[in-house]
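User: I'm writing a short report section on ligand binding and want a predicted complex to refer to. Could you take this sequence and zinc ion and write out the structure as tokens? A short remark afterwards would be nice.
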Amino acid sequence: MDDCGGGGGKRPFQLARSLTYHHHPGHRPAAASRWRRQHQQHQLADEPRAPRPQAVVLYTTSLRGVRRTFADCAAVRAILRGFRVAVDERDVSMDAALRREVQALLAARGRAFALPQLLIGGRLVGGADEVRQLNETGQLRRLLDGAAGQDPAFVCDACGGVRFVPCAGCGGGRKVFVEEEGRVVRCVECNENGLVRCLNCCS
Ligand SMILES: [Zn+2]
Ligand SMILES: [Zn+2]
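Assistant: Sure. The structure tokens for the complex follow:
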């Protein structure tokens, strides 16, 4: 529990629970499911019979290093916007943990690492070629039937659409001072860029 290393006492850099986001594999699903549970309870109050929407997850990169990859990410993003569905875009250039996540997912299916990658309802749809093909045949529309709708003009207030926010624990500097120990340690709340996923728009 006490990630900063000190025992009890005053902890100046403790995060508000709502701003805490752990990137450790063991904590990540707990945080996500807790959020989902709260979200669902809210939904259930309004619409008791509404089925749970299928998550649309798109792994991308915002790095322009490989022109083809960058163009493919933009193309798939544009196709999905046309369907007006909510997309949980995961930019791997913002967070090494997201890169490892999609690498593991592809490796488990015996596929080479490539971006973008689309998942609908936990099922791997594939990369840009697959998405384009499914779109042309009309199958993509069917796959997206159960997805939550979202206005393509929606921009998250909390992160401005970046889907990451500077870590509140360390201010994005990745270092926190532990008063009890009188030393500076690496912040355990954020990723290698001093960022945490925006809880307002990411599940
Ligand atoms: Zn956001
Ligand atoms: Zn931090």
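A remark for your report: The beta strands are 56-60, 88-91, 117-120, 123-126, 164-166, 175-178, 183-186, 195-197. Residues 167, 169-170, 174, 187, 189-190, 194 surround zinc ion (ligand 2) (CB under 6 Å).
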